[in-house]
Design goal:
This protein has 104 residues and is α+β, with helices and mostly antiparallel strands. The protein has a domain at 33-102. It has three helices and five strands. It has helices at 8-29, 39-42, 85-89, and strands spanning 36-38, 48-54, 58-59, 68-70, 75-82. It has a three-stranded antiparallel sheet, with no helix packed on it. A two-stranded antiparallel sheet has the order 1-4. Strand 2 and strand 3 (58-59) form a beta hairpin. The longest helix is centred in the first third of the chain and has 22 residues, at 8-29. The chain is globular, with a radius of gyration of 19 Å.
């Protein structure tokens, strides 16, 4: 008897993974409501640059900010870079971000 190429257990595991991935992706792409978050909550500012990417404003949070962060509008994504990378790359508040992920 030939063994099936794909077992029921493997198919079940794959379905569970795809469902989890789909739900996570949907949650990641849904614009959350605007909210304030202390910068220290995400990570120590000396280790990460957290760049909030809004729908219309581009980068809205200056790197190394230690103040409470409020975008004032829903944020589409947060890009985390190694500390100091934003400055080395010349990224500043108001810069535009272009990616196929946002073309939905």
């Amino acid at each position: 008897m030939t063994r099936p190429a794909f077992s029921l257990r493997a198919a079940t595991t794959l379905c569970a993974f795809l469902l989890t991935f789909s739900l996570g992706l949907a949650a990641a792409l849904a614009p959350p409501p605007a909210r304030a978050q202390p910068a220290a909550e995400a990570a120590p500012p000396a280790q990460l640059d957290a760049l909030e990417i809004a729908t219309r404003k581009g980068v809205v949070v200056p790197p190394f900010s230690e103040r409470t962060i409020s975008s004032g509008e829903p944020v589409r994504a947060v890009l985390e870079l190694n500390g100091g990378a934003a400055q080395r790359l010349g990224i500043a508040p108001g810069d535009r971000v272009s990616t196929s992920l946002f073309k939905r």
